[in-house]
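Marked as duplicate of an earlier ticket. Keeping the data here for the record.
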Amino acid sequence: MMDTEHHAQIIQILDQTDDMTIATIRPDGFPQATVVAFVHNDLRIYFSASPNAQKAHNIAACDKVSLTITRPYTRWDEIEGLSVGGHAARLEDPEELAQASKLILDRYPEVAEVMPNEPAGMTLFRVDPVVISILDYSRGFGHTELIEVQDRLPAA
C-alpha cells in the first residue's frame, strides 16, 4: 500500500525528470528499451510515438511494459528513481487525448512546432502502473521499496 510520503516522492521524481526508458516486448520475445519524453497525471504516465514505431506495434501485441525514470545526479548517494511495471494502451478516448495533449504542450511547448497536422502522425499512449519500485540511494546503496499502486489510479 502506498503512503503519502511515497506518493509525494514518486510525484517529485516524475516532475523533475524529462525522459524515461520504456521496455516493450518484441514479437521475437526480446524486450525493446526506448528512451522517450513523458508527462504524467498523478501516477498515470503518457508518451507519444509514431504509429509505425516498433514500440507502438509491440504494445498493440502485448500491453505489459516496464519503464525506468532516474532523476539527474552527480554522486552515487544522490541516485533516486523509479522502476515501474504496468500496462500500456493507445489512447482512443477524445477527452483523454485532449488532456494528454495539453499536458505534453504545457511541459514541452516546443512540441507545437513539430507536431504533425494530421492526428495520424502521432499516437499517444497511457501507462497504468501496477507496481513501482522506488530507488533511493540516499537511504543506503541500492535501497529500494516496492509499492503496489493499481488501486491509486483514477478511472481512465
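See parent ticket for discussion. The helical segments are 4-15, 54-61, 94-107.
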